[in-house]
């Protein structure tokens, strides 16, 4: 039984979930890569922040070409991260601390080392094994079956056997060649994933974050793309790889499986679609949550924050759901750096986090966000992200191991290995951002986040932040204002001038507020309204 935080049936609706990137959280065995035992040992830290649960990115067996998003065994634990026993201990320890555990599932593609893909390669053209993936003939040995470009920037087809003169088939991978896409029009794939879901749900995991949830189906016939290299909002966009109608049946089927458990196991989709389309995937009988994707890219602009948040909230409300808000994850530049870097970037990142924690719905915090970590400029020869290796941007800078201590030697408490021997090197200044440094410093970002989460919990408990209250969004003179019900108001000053603080009790601010009733630029506040 989970104490307190887990006791409501729909705990996930307004939960705060901490995203753990296990490679970079804590290394217990000194190999320079974080692991499950390291995470278990430091769970008290996560619990001390006051979150409701955590989402752990992939730890299943994998050649690690895409840092675990290339899974070769969906029901195992990669020895790099430990054993199944380590996972069971982690789950038990987390539950005993009242923390829910979500893990990642990557259903769009597996690893090219996966036994079913290996069997498909072996079986040859026309076989049932090949139909589990997208194998297609090309016109000759040189030209792929269509013109699609992968999300990592190169072509999305690779020859099954490049030197064969008889097998001229290619397989589809919308990410790297090491990540062949499953053919979701084959019922075998549905049955396979049903088992995977049940395996982890039976073990006691509380939910799954569904990788590339919008992408499983491709347009029938795999036609050429009109604009194969299109990039929309910083991401490759090909309508043939996204948002196909058949998705809904998959998530309905998964929801039925999730609902066999009490409380329901949560399905949180990585859904990279605009608000209206994303909301269709979280209708009452589909997934529980979709990440509010637009927010990980949105610039510092009150009008855009208002319109984006309002649209997301309204589209979700129309289907009886709430967004899963987040401004950071392991794929995007850290908020501090995105919002301008230095003290300004940090002020804005703190303000932005305070605001999303007050939005109606769930919120996700990426490890290190609570420390105000900036993006690291990882030395070029130390970068390992396949996106970078394929000529795109590098996501390594947001994945650098977490600094635990101020110790000048090694990896700041992450691992016992030398600083430049960890899987990504930690920069020399890393210790100043560390948990140890922030624990003892007044006004640290970590202390601020813990205070906000405690306050949020109280306001959930006393009904102030009840999800059925109406929400009013406003952007005026570079100031974003969000009012929930008649007792809770948030203000964020996003221009170069202070914002007037409305009358009421200042419950918390993301930075120092002035005595004269003004909120400085790049600062946000929560206000308790009275007598209304
Ligand atoms: C989204 C994951 O968050 C990212 O890290 C990964 O590279 C792609 N999906 C492919 O699985």
Detailed description of the structure:
- The protein has two domains: 11-108 and 187-439, TIM Barrel (Alpha-Beta Barrel); 115-172, Oligo-1,6-glucosidase, Domain 2 (Oligo-1,6-glucosidase, domain 2, Alpha-Beta Complex).
- 25% of the residues lie in helices and 15% in strands.
- It has helices spanning 36-41, 43-49, 84-96, 115-123, 187-203, 247-258, 275-280, 302-318, 335-338, 342-358, 386-389, 435-439, 445-461, and strands at 16-20, 53-56, 100-105, 135-137, 157-159, 169-172, 207-210, 231-232, 235-236, 266-269, 289-290, 324-325, 362-366, 471-476, 479-484, 488-493, 499-500, 505-509, 518-519, 523-528.
- The strands form five sheets. Strands 11-10-7-3-2-1-13-12 form an eight-stranded parallel sheet, covered by helices on one side.
- It starts with 15 loop residues before the first strand and ends with a strand.
- Bound molecules: 1-deoxynojirimycin.
- 1-deoxynojirimycin is lined by residues 66, 69, 106, 175, 211-212, 270, 330-331.
Put the structure in a nutshell.
The chain is α/β, with parallel strands linked by helices.
Task: Annotate the secondary structure layout.
Blueprint: E1 16-20, H1 36-41, H2 43-49, E2 53-56, H3 84-96, E3 100-105, H4 115-123, E4 135-137, E5 157-159, E6 169-172, H5 187-203, E7 207-210, E8 231-232, E9 235-236, H6 247-258, E10 266-269, H7 275-280, E11 289-290, H8 302-318, E12 324-325, H9 335-338, H10 342-358, E13 362-366, H11 386-389, H12 435-439, H13 445-461, E14 471-476, E15 479-484, E16 488-493, E17 499-500, E18 505-509, E19 518-519, E20 523-528
Parallel strand pairs: 1-2, 1-13, 2-3, 3-7, 7-10, 10-11, 12-13
Antiparallel strand pairs: 4-6, 5-6, 8-9, 14-15, 15-16, 16-20, 17-19, 18-20
Helix pairs in contact: 5-6, 10-13
The chain binds 1-deoxynojirimycin (NOJ).
Residues 66, 69, 106, 175, 211-212, 270, 330-331 line the site of 1-deoxynojirimycin (NOJ).
């Amino acid at each position: 039984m989970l104490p307190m935080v887990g006791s409501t049936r729909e705990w996930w609706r307004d939960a705060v979930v901490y995203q753990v990137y296990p490679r970079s959280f804590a290394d217990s065995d000194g190999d320079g890569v974080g692991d499950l035992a390291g995470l278990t040992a430091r769970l008290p830290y996560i619990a001390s922040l006051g979150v409701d649960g955590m989402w752990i990115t992939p730890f299943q067996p994998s050649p690690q070409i895409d840092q675990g998003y290339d899974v070769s065994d969906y029901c195992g634990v990669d020895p790099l991260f430990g054993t199944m026993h380590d996972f069971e201990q982690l789950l038990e320890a987390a539950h005993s601390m009242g923390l829910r555990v979500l893990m990642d599932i990557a259903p769009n593609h597996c690893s090219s080392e996966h036994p079913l893909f290996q069997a498909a390669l072996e079986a040859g053209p026309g076989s049932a094994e090949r139909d589990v993936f997208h194998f297609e003939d090309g016109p000759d040995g040189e030209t792929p079956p269509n013109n699609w470009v992968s999300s990592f920037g190169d072509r999305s087809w690779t020859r099954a056997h490049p030197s064969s003169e008889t097998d001229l088939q290619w397989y589809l991978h919308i990410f790297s060649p090491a990540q062949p896409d499953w053919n979701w029009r084959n019922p075998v794939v549905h049955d396979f994933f049903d088992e995977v879901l049940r395996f982890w749900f039976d073990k006691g995991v509380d939910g799954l974050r569904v990788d590339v949830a919008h992408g499983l189906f491709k347009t029938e016939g795999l036609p050429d793309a009109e604009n194969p290299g299109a990039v929309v909002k910083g991401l490759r966009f090909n309508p043939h790889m996204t948002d196909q109608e058949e998705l809904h049946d998959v998530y309905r089927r998964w929801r039925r499986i999730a609902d066999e458990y009490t409380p329901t196991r949560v399905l949180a989709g990585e859904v990279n679609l605009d608000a209206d389309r994303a909301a269709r995937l979280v209708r009452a009988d589909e997934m529980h949550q979709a990440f509010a994707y637009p927010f990980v890219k949105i610039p510092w602009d009150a009008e855009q924050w208002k319109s984006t948040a309002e649209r997301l909230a309204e589209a979700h409300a129309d289907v009886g759901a709430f967004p899963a808000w987040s401004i950071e994850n392991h794929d995007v530049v850290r908020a501090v750096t995105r919002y301008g870097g230095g003290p300004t970037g940090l002020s804005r990142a703190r303000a932005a986090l305070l605001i999303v924690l007050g939005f109606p719905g769930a919120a996700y915090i990426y490890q290190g966000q609570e420390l105000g970590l900036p993006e690291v400029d990882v030395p070029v020869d130390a970068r390992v992200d396949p996106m970078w290796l394929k000529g795109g941007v590098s996501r390594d800078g947001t994945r650098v191991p977490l600094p635990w201590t101020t110790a000048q030697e090694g990896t700041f408490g992450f691992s016992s290995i030398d600083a430049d021997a960890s899987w990504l090197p930690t920069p020399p200044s890393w210790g100043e951002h560390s948990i140890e440094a922030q624990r003892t410093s007044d006004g640290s970002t970590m202390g601020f986040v813990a205070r906000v989460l405690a306050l949020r919990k109280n306001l959930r408990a006393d009904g102030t932040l009840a999800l059925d209250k109406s929400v009013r969004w406003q952007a005026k003179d570079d100031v974003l204002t969000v009012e929930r019900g008649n007792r809770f108001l948030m203000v964020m000053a996003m221009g170069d001038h202070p914002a007037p603080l409305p009358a009421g009790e200042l419950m918390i601010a993301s930075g120092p507020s002035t005595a004269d009733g003004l909120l400085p630029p790049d600062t946000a506040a929560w206000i308790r309204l009275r007598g209304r």
